[in-house]
């Protein structure tokens, strides 16, 4: 089972998670060894025990304007989720999946990149807005590969050693 802890502001991330879980269920129906996904959406009242086990985080990108390079790299809207991760057990955080709008160039997926640095966990995939079937396959494959790697090695991949 892959544990996925995510935040959705406008519903785009939630829609992608539904698509991703549906694809995982299809794969599991074909092969009982294929991972299913236990997805938990963050809210102020959510049970955060998902962080007691290896998990992935998924975050949308909402920034304060600018170009993401010289300015406009301050995240907004996902701060409560970030604070929850700060307070939780990020030793179990295996990786970050991010979303955004490719029209914003350098800002695309920037929140996921910030989280990766902050929590020393790799960005394992990015998707645009609500995502599509191709992105769901790509993200599922990445989640599966990282989960298998963790189960075999017993240690998460990190940005630094």
From TrEMBL:
Pfam families: Flavodoxin_NdrI (PF07972). Gene3D superfamilies: 3.40.50.360. GO terms for molecular function: FMN binding. This is Flavoprotein NrdI. It comes from Lacticaseibacillus manihotivorans DSM 13343 = JCM 12514.
